[in-house]
Amino acid sequence: MLRNNILKYSILLVILFIIFTLPLSIKNPYIVHIFIMMYLNIVLAMGLTMIFKAGALSFGHAAYASIGAYTSVLLVTMLNIPFWIAFLLAGAVTALVALFIGGITLGVRGIYFTITTFAFTEVMKGIYIAYPNPFGGPGGIRGIPHISGIETKEQFYYMALMFALISFFIFYKMAHSKSSFGIICDGLKLNELLEQSLGINTKTVRIFVFIVGCTFAGFAGSIMAHYLRQINPETFAIHTSIDIIVFCAAGGFGNIIGAVVGATSLTMIGELLYGIGTYKSLVFGAMLILIVLFLPEGIVGFFSRKRILKSKGKI
Asked: In 3D, which of 173, 204, 177, 176 has the Cα closest to residue 188?
């Protein structure tokens, strides 16, 4: 047991050393860019994983990233508010929208909830297109200012990395909490009626988890907008939500480590498919079908099951 723990923590330290020193050893700006987007995708995937863990599957996660992005950009460009204040306000606005939408839609079950989240994404896209002032219309907003003091790719790399690590700590604690909250979250997906019979307000718990997941999507959208320096309605369209779902499915739905593994591996694959444009989402969609059919527990779930069977001497 001690030997396994030493090995596990040694591997973790090596990984942390590599990711913290990567910009110093790799001077190719494109590779640094891939890692920045990967860290932001990891946060998006972890947020959606927590929502799924609470018993809901949202096809509108990218819409909340768009709310954070547009809110942050408009506050900085139109009101000259410093980025860090705009960043926090972007999260607050996203949380309020999530509270309102979640309060309406989380009472709907199954495919109907999925349809409403899909519709919300299209509604937000329509708003951004229909109102060039202030959202820039179909062309979006360009020339977004950098964050003060964070202008190079290396600086953005460390900012995105720290954001991902802080988000991981929060989501992991939520998902693996030994308190009543963690147990309730696990039970929401398994037997919500049983929890309701015990007097637990399951809708309140689900809304809380939904708000947290969406708020971090808003934070990620804010950072993404100021990093890319341009956003448009297509940046956060339905295909982006599908990509996030595929990240979660590839790693393992309801598993925070799985979200990290899925977002990491598929961000790399997605960059290789960058040349085919929007057809990338078709490839991701096909991958989602294959994952559901042949690897329903995801990469992490598959290896966890193999390890358990091996420990029991069944393989």
From this structure: 204
Does a structural domain hold residue 278?
A: no
Q: Tell me, rounded to whole angstroms, the distance of Cα 277 from its chain centroid.
A: 21
Per-residue pLDDT tens over the stretch 191-210: 555 445 545 556 777 888 89
The CA-CA-CA angle for residues 110, 113, 117, to 5°, reads 145
- Is the separation of the CB atoms in 273 and 280 below 8 Å? yes
d(CA 37, CA 160): 8
State pTM to two decimals. 0.89
Q: How many structural domains are present in the chain?
A: 1
Residue at 211 is within a domain? yes
Domain that holds residue 66: 32-237
Residue 229 lies in a domain: yes
Nearest CA to 244 out of 214, 222, 273 is that of 214
Which band of pLDDT confidence, cut at 50, 70 and 90, is reported for residue 3? low
SS3 call for 165? helix
